[in-house]
Design a protein that fits this description.
Helices cover about 70% and strands about 0% of the residues. The chain is mainly alpha-helical.
Length: about 280
């Protein structure tokens, strides 16, 4: 029999429902505006019922900018960065957690300290490097700088340090396994849920990134989804219905992604939260 103290109070469900509605309402409001026009979007009291102009505005989005190409560019960039985060940050985390080499602690401290530096400070030197490589207005200008991150290295280092014991690695070395074999066949499978979550976070971050793509991308065929949405606006006025329609279309892939992998993402986060 369930103890009284273990029962969930009715107000707990009420608070959870209110929090869910508060988180979901901006998405719903974006869809409402995407089905109306600017006049309706700025009306007080605001409209809360979707209109009937969504397909018309969606057609304008596709005819105004190369939106399909932009979505594909975002998929390529975000997908590559997500995979890079999962693999490269796992490799770096494994090195910092389980390998012994000179200056390991100092290098890891430097990696952690870089998380305190605002991203905007790196824009100018990063652009100078990309320009010297001839990568301006190319997708590799977005992919290469985002393949790994200080947070990702820290995340995987903590998971590897608490998940894999040194005895397992010593036994593998006695059996003749090399460093790469130990990582790929022993370490990485054990922290695969954490790597999956990190890759998904990298995917979402790259998908929603605006500042760096806005700086390095020039031609419309290279636009990502966020830059294509910016291109829907002109210099003097903003068609809120058109902009929100593009924003909703750019959000749909993320919604579909979370429908399929949301449970696995939560499981990976909780798995890391309860390791000690």
């Amino acid at each position: 029999m369930m103890k009284k103290a273990d029962r969930v109070r009715w107000w707990t469900y009420l608070l959870l429902a209110a929090a869910t509605l508060a988180c979901a309402f901006p998405l719903y409001w974006m869809f409402v505006v995407a089905t109306t026009d600017t006049a309706t979007a700025t009306r007080l009291p605001p409209e809360i019922v979707p209109g009937g102009n969504f397909f018309h505005l969606a057609g304008l989005v596709f005819s105004t900018v190369p939106f399909v190409r932009s979505i594909l560019n975002s998929l390529v960039v975000a997908g590559t960065i997500g995979v890079g985060h999962a693999l490269l940050c796992s490799l770096a985390g494994f090195a910092f957690a389980k390998l012994r080499f000179r200056g390991r602690n100092v290098l890891f401290l430097i990696v952690v300290l870089t998380m305190t530096v605002p991203t905007q400070l790196a824009v100018i030197p990063q652009y100078m490097i990309i320009s010297s490589l001839g990568w301006v207005d190319t997708l590799q200008a977005l992919i290469v700088p985002g393949l790994a991150s200080a947070f990702g290295i820290f995340w995987m280092r903590q998971h590897l340090a608490t998940t894999i014991s040194d005895e397992i690695l010593q036994a593998a070395r006695i059996d003749g396994a090399g460093t790469w074999q130990i990582f790929w066949r022993i370490a990485f499978p054990l922290v695969r849920p954490a790597a999956f979550v990190l890759g998904l976070l990298g995917f979402v971050t790259a998908w929603n990134d605006f500042l760096w793509p806005f700086i390095v991308l020039k031609s419309p065929e290279m636009y990502t989804a966020q830059i294509a949405i910016k291109a829907l606006q002109n210099s003097y006025t903003i068609d809120l219905g058109l902009a929100m329609s593009g924003s909703f279309l750019a959000t749909l892939p993320l919604i579909v992604l979370f429908v399929f992998v949301g449970r696995r993402m939560v499981a990976g986060i909780m798995d890391g939260a309860f390791k000690g």
